[in-house]
Fold this protein.
Amino acid sequence: MTRLTLAAATLAVGVLTASGAMAGSCPLMVKAVDAALAANTQLSQAQKDEAMALRNEGEELHKAGKHAESVAALTKAKEIVGAM
């Protein structure tokens, strides 16, 4: 029983650490998208609009505590602007 409890506690700490790390990466990803949008003059207006919409969605999801969804939206935005 002790091993099972220890394994469950270890798993819980790992999940909390991973979600905390994910939460911390969202603002960095927003900054990366912003910088790439400012620097990349080769993007079409449609690409800029789509990247900005995804960036804004990612920021709102982050604020709502939905970090996995935020990272997904921000990753798409980064792909569009070439900030990978």
Summary: The two ends are 45 Å apart (CA to CA). The helical segments are 2-39, 45-63, 67-81. Confidence is low (pLDDT under 50) at residues 5-21. Residues 2-81 form one domain.
